[in-house]
Amino acid sequence: MNYLDRRKLLGLLGVAVTLPLIVGPALAETKINVGALRFTSHAASFVAFERGYFADEGLDVEFKFFQAAQPMAVAIASGDADYGVTAISGGLVSLADKGAVKIIGGALSEEKGIDGQKILASDKAFQAGVTDPSKLDDKTFAITQSGSSFHYMASKIADKENVAISFKPLQKVGAIIGAVKSGQVDAWSIVPHIAKPLAKSGAVHIIGDVSDYIPDYQVTTVFTSADNAANKRAQTEAFLRAFSKGAADFNAALVDKTAGDAAAEDMVKLIHKYVYADRPYEKAKPSIVNGAMRINEGAAMNTASIQDQLDWFIGEDLVKDTVTFDTLVDTSYVKTY
Amino acid sequence: MDLQLEKICHSYGSLEVLSDVSLDIPAGKIVCVVGPSGCGKSTLLRIIGGLERPDSGRVVQIGEPPADSINPLTFVFQDFALLPWRSVRGNISLVLEDHGIRGERCDAIIDDVLARTKLSEFKKALPRQLSGGMKQRVAIARALAVNPAVMLMDEPLSALDSQTRELLMDDLISLWSRNPFTAVYVTHNLQEAVRLGHEIVVLSRRPGVIREIVAIDMPLSERTMGDAGLEAKQKYLWNLMREEAVAADKELISVP
Amino acid sequence: MSHEQPAKKPVVFRGGGFAPRRIRWIGLAVFFVLIGLMEIGTQTGFITALTLPKPSDVFGTFVHLWESGLLWKHLLPSVTRLAVGATIGTIAGISLGISIGLFSYVRAGLVPLVAAIFPIPKIALLPLFVIWFGIDEGSKYALIALGTFTPTVVATYSAVDNVDRTLIRMGQSFGLSWRSIVLKIVLPGAMPGILSGLRVSLAIAIILLVAAEMLGAEYGVGAYILEAGSLYDLERLFAGVAILSVLGVGVSALVGLVETRLLGWRS
């Protein structure tokens, strides 16, 4: 019995208010809040919204923008947002363990042949001989926080190369960029649209691909509150359908490039409304194009990758060892592979 | 060593506080300076002690201070000016340390002055444990420790209640009788002036000029409370000052 | 009425109060009652796991920290950072504060500067410090030092201003040297103000510890708390915060000890 549960209370209130109004289809004008970061990796939601896929499903979507994945996860746990896309982090697993959130689908994933996340070395480290990841022994590796996806990637790379690295938590991507540029840390891994311009400036060097170390890495996932996953099946399915349509458009336009140049241009313009909106279109375009990584068709998810990540979190003592795959993931919504 | 004040003038901004004050302070005598509040008596004392520079005029020493005088011109302050974090002994050693007096010699001086001021058993006490009268005794002991040629006493008894004041006056008289010292004693209390002063200098206010110097020939040791001759002198002084005291009372305070 | 005995009535008491008394154990009792309520609330499920952790689990986390030796691994670097940073900050602050108190030119030149630095959130300068002092210990020391420096300067020069001028005149009238007046009169006289300023600035140092460990710290109580926050691990978060609180109480007790030693002459 949870008496002190704000969401339930609000839910009850909502029922009381809407009861007399329920007429027509169950999903007519269901208001939902979708959490998003202004990254290209969140494009599927933006496309679904702009092209009316959400509206077609009877979802009245309002975006809630966040500065980082962590507060977004907390907002979904608290019921302030309904659906979101984020990397699997220790925080997300902890929230799932507390019965607050559930992963319901896949979003961004690494795929051989498609430009994925890059491993970077600072110029200083590169000049000192760190020209590929096997030379990272005894070097520092920037991460945002312990238990972040950066931490997971770095750890996986170090394992595979059998090198000892030390992690430098720097909280924010901006701080990491500063530290890598000035040579305060030796290495980092990051999505291509950030990695490439940095490498072009000469301050850092790309020394490898994350996909070589973590094949088929399920980078981000679609997640929602445990309550939505368990009790609002119709709404959740509707969201995933619209999201998948958006993802398909995105992949066709920018990842597989099967839709032609005009469609690609349209897609970039659409995304530009949300991402790099403060930059002129001409400058934003390369970043958006570079940032295009595969978003899973039909929001399918790679359970093996998710299991591997969960095992790693438990192994590093970042989350409780009692967390199971089923606590974290609801596989009933999308295809798994 | 005698002191001589030559035409001392001093102003605070446009406010003239002392005008053309000339005075002799003969060795071995206590010179009391009285006057209504705001007549510049404390300023005059600070000028004599070298803590303030007069606008014009000067203070001169006539003759050398005794060789064993560590600090020839020594103040005793109204609010005692004891360091609250130092014991009675520490407060006295403070003024000796800087003159290179330490160890046995220092202890000997401290024991001597504490005995003279009847403070021997309070050597280790902190100022907060002492009554007002005791604190002023410590301050006097401290002044005696440096063997001054002239003691500059700035309303030393004004912060004390009247009984304590009587006791301390007796103490000062016995100290002087045993070993006469030179002193300039500033007070607004005429009773103190007639009990302790060989000469009483009456200052008028704004600007302070010497109105009259009243000499009292009666030996200090013979002066007692309620003595008719002293009462008459006190009345005479009061009449000199009365009108100005009334004026001073009605004025808004502005002088530091 | 006129010839009757006037009625007797005791005067109503209306004094008292406004005099804080020292009552022991109440503070501790309030603390334990709150923890007890938290435990009952979380055990019965009245408070969800998302809202607060079980105090017993927090305690368990702490025991685990202790047994695994991780406590010292986190505490030692933090205490070192606090000690080094706060020592640099307070010594520099006291020195400058005294200079401002003693020299009019220093005062005129630096008081506006200190007033300008005071309100800057030092955390905002952390990225800059990383460039200046390096990502390792240097920037952490610098952040804590700057955080403690400004309040110490202000507390010190106000304390010097408040030293009784008659004591200084007394020192001069006895022919004490300038050095002696500063060391034996000004400094001890300003000590109560300096120490109460120290209480504030050391509390600020502990607050800044978490900020200082945001960048590039693998170990440290602040890093531990930040990690717990990002993992949404409430047990660790509360355990870490409790360690900081204990650290704060410890530092305050230490200042109290110094106060009773140095300021015994007061009460």
Poorly predicted segments of chain A: 9-26
Class from helix and strand fractions of chain A: alpha/beta
CATH class of chain C: Mainly Alpha
- Low-pLDDT segments of chain C: none
Count of the separate structural domains of chain C: 1
| The CATH homologous superfamily of chain C | MetI-like
Helix percentage of chain C? over 70%
How many E-type strands of chain A? 10
Gyration radius of chain A, rounded: 20 Å
Question: What is the CA-based Rg of chain C, rounded?
Answer: 25 Å
Mean pLDDT, all residues of chain C: 88
Mean pLDDT of chain A: 84
Would you identify the CATH H-level superfamily of the largest domain in chain A?
Answer: Periplasmic binding protein-like II
**Overall geometry of chain C:** flat
Class based on secondary structure composition and strand pairing of chain C: mainly alpha
At CATH level 2, the architecture of the largest domain in chain A is 3-Layer(aba) Sandwich
Shape of chain A: globular
Helix content of chain A: 40-55%
The fold-level CATH name of the largest domain in chain A is D-Maltodextrin-Binding Protein, domain 2
Oligomer: heterotrimer
Count of spatially separate domains of chain A = 2
What does this structure look like?
The complex is a heterotrimer of chains A (337), B (256) and C (267). Chain A is built from 15 helices and ten strands. Chain A is an alpha/beta fold. Chain B has two domains: 2-65 and 149-249, Rossmann fold (3-Layer(aba) Sandwich); 83-147, no CATH class. Chain B is globular and about 50 Å long. Helix content of chain C is 73%, strand content 0%. Chain C contains ten helices and no strands. Chain C has helices at 26-44, 55-68, 70-102, 104-117, 126-133, 137-161, 165-173, 178-212, 221-230, 234-262. Chain C is flat. The relative contact order of chain C is 0.11. Chains A and C meet through α4, α5, β7 and α8 of A and α5 and α9 of C.
